[in-house]
Write a structure and sequence with these properties.
Layout (H helix, E strand, L loop, with lengths): L1 H8 L9 H8 L3 E5 L4 E3 L8 E7 L2 E5 L2 E6 L4 E2 L1 H6 L6 E4 L3 E7 L22 H4 L5 H5 L12 E3 L4 H11 L3 E6 L2 E6 H8 L20 E3 L4 H11 L3 E5 L5 E6 H4 L7 H10 L3 H8 L2 H10 L4 H22 L11 E5 L1 H5 L10 E5 L9 H19 L17 E3 H13 L6 H9 L2 E2 L3 H13 L4 H12 L22 E3 H20 L6 H10 L5 H27 L7 E3 L5 H22 L8
Parallel strand pairs: 9-10, 12-13, 16-17
Antiparallel strand pairs: 1-8, 2-7, 3-6, 3-8, 4-5, 4-7, 10-11, 13-14, 15-16, 15-18, 19-20
């Protein structure tokens, strides 16, 4: 009995019951065992008078023979049939040996059944859950220590020949050496690039071709964060160290991801070795095919977005290196920033590249002659991105526009005005853009603008206005067959999921994390921070994170399909082409967001008057 109470009491929605009702329900639990591949609910089964809660193991939800969801411990199923009195719409089969709690209709058991807010959205048809049983993403979520290899040590004075023999005999691809107080690393790529080409003789010391200092990763990092770090730096190996800095192993990209995936590191390597903008443009032609291949290999949409952002970072920096620096920027201390979804590291495959520019210099106004000259130079620099096939923002969020290209002093003036007069036209949009900003060059200079915005959390009128603005981005409220869709024109019968789904969650996460005092990071990071500050409940944060993942997943899936088939990419989805479960999840998520927004609208802690 206690085991039933403890488990149900820790799961949604049963955790909303008072102790008396929870005890009544726990007394009605029957435990059922289902062997792997055994049907729990058959296709075409009659109406159910009981529901199930997964205790251990997992079950798959089947729609006409196709797996549409995978449920694990704590998930409820069968409740749709119980509550509606209709036959179950989907079949259920055990993935592995599974224990379930079988419960009668709770309306006949508990005194307050209205507290059990069952939701289809409670178990998303999320790609991350479908691949959690062993796809590429699940491998990448493991600790990096599970993928590391033993260290092969060498002395900095050892000959290249001797180290090559040692690596060959140990079947390893990298060795570590000490150079004074720092670590160095030498890899098979160094041998190919420096020795095989004849540039360095075999008898030279190994330190002559090693990378010093070596990049390191803490042993408590995930394989995924390590992998992303490798993409960002264009390396294939990192030294794994303890928190105290002691080397304990070597992490290699091949050990962490499936070999059949076209690695973004391959693209990153071609990008970094491009010697002209023409070669860089050719390298960028690999980006979209690589995104398609990663998706086909079960990399989740959010992970794919982070990889794409890292690759775009490298393209941006390399294009700046290869282009002749315009005369107006020579000797000028400046910083380039990425904005929007690229800045948050959560772009879609076809996302635009939004940019801003900060420089140290004079100019009494943003329209001064000097400012115009610098912005023209910024536009010339961004032409390299366009040559590489990346799309600049069509709505004006570009470094060469007066709003997004300013000297630091004028940025400070503009941000101070946003904070003091947040209701002025353009203040919220500028503040929102710069809160999402991420410097890609001269980090400290670019970060100065965002730091000033974060200081605005002490101004209640500013945070209140940002919150009110976020709450104006509402999900669909009226439904045509369950959805708000376009009624006329080329998008008739379709839903703009980016505007109706992603925007309300992203803007709310930004405002809540701003109220919490730190608006950096991804949308899920921001939601976690707001929950930690008690501005959102844990359940609200999880609901919003789940909604964000659902919308991002659907949009990525559609964009990948458009790219694969050579179709124009847009943000509109055909709701009728979604399977029934996803349509229900969309509808439930919209309603859940609406409820959360209504609750926040009356919360004085968010800076609202």
């Amino acid at each position: 009995m206690k085991e039933f109470l403890d488990f149900l009491g820790s799961q949604s929605p049963y955790d909303r019951l008072d102790p008396e009702d929870l005890s009544l329900l726990a007394r009605k639990v029957d435990v059922e065992f289902f062997a792997a591949r055994q049907w729990v609910i058959n296709e075409g089964a009659p109406s159910l008078d009981h529901l199930f809660v997964v205790r251990t193991g997992s079950v798959e939800i089947m729609d006409r023979g196709r797996v549409v969801d995978v449920l694990g411990p704590g998930d409820t199923f069968g409740h749709i049939s119980v509550l509606s009195g209709l036959p179950p719409p989907l079949a259920v089969r055990a993935v592995e040996d599974t224990l379930c709690y079988r419960l009668p209709d709770p309306r006949q058991v508990v005194a307050h059944p209205e507290r059990l807010q069952f939701s289809h959205f409670n178990s998303l048809v999320a790609r991350e859950r479908l691949i959690a049983t062993g796809g590429s993403s699940s491998r990448l979520e493991r600790a990096v220590t599970e993928s590391m290899r033993p260290i092969i040590w060498c002395d900095s004075h050892d000959s290249i020949r001797d180290v090559a023999v040692k690596l060959s005999e140990s079947h390893q691809s990298a060795a570590i050496l000490r150079s004074g107080t720092v670590l160095g690393v030498v890899t098979d790529d160094d041998f190919r690039r420096e020795v095989a080409t004849g540039r360095v003789p075999l008898d030279a010391p190994i330190a002559s071709i090693a990378s010093i200092p070596a990049l390191t990763v803490n042993s408590d990092a995930t394989a995924w964060s390590t992998y992303l770090h490798m993409i960002g730096h264009g390396v294939h190996h990192m030294v794994v160290t303890t928190p105290a800095g002691k080397p304990i192993g070597m992490a290699g990209v091949i050990d962490m991801v499936a070999s059949e995936v076209r690695h973004p590191l391959v693209v990153r390597g071609v990008i970094s070795t491009s010697s002209t903008l023409t070669e860089l443009a050719e390298a960028c032609r690999l980006i979209q095919p690589t995104m398609v291949e990663l998706w086909d290999s079960d990399v989740s949409s959010t992970h794919l977005g982070a990889v794409l952002a890292a690759v775009v970072d490298s393209v941006f920096r390399r294009s700046l290196e290869l282009a002749d620096t315009p005369a107006a920027l020579q000797g000028v201390d400046h910083s380039w920033l990425l904005l929007g979804s690229m800045g948050r590291r959560e772009p879609l495959p076809a996302s635009d590249v939004d940019t801003a520019f900060v420089w140290r210099g004079g100019g009494a106004t943003s329209l001064s002659q000097e400012a115009r000259i610098v912005r023209d130079a910024a536009a010339e620099s961004l032409a390299g991105l366009k040559r590489c096939g990346l799309t600049l923002c069509p709505d004006g969020a570009n470094a060469f526009s007066p709003d997004f290209g300013r000297p630091l002093d004028l940025w400070r003036t503009a941000i101070a005005r946003c904070i003091r007069h947040p209701d002025e036209p353009g203040s919220v949009s500028l503040a929102s853009a710069m809160l999402d900003a991420r410097p890609v060059t001269r980090h400290s200079l670019g970060q100065a603008v965002q730091n000033q915005l974060l200081a605005g959390t002490y101004t209640k009128s500013f945070t209140g206005t940002m919150t009110r603005s976020a709450l104006t981005n509402r999900p669909p409220a009226g439904f045509v067959r369950g959805f708000v869709v376009e009624r006329f024109g080329e998008h008739r019968g379709r839903l703009n999921l980016k505007r109706s789904g992603l925007l309300p969650v992203v803007s709310l996460a930004r405002a809540m994390s701003l109220n919490a005092g730190d608006a950096t990071g991804t949308t899920p990071d921001r939601l976690d921070r707001a929950a930690h500050a008690n501005l959102l409940t844990d359940d609200e944060a999880e609901t919003l994170k789940g909604a964000f993942t659902l919308y991002h997943d659907i949009l990525v899936e559609q964009e990948i399909s458009d790219i694969r088939n050579g179709r124009p990419v847009d943000d509109f989805i055909s709701t009728l082409q979604l399977d029934p479960l996803r349509r229900r999840h969309l509808r439930d998520s919209f309603r859940a967001i609406d409820r959360i927004q209504a609750r926040i609208a009356g919360d004085p802690r968010t800076g609202r008057p």
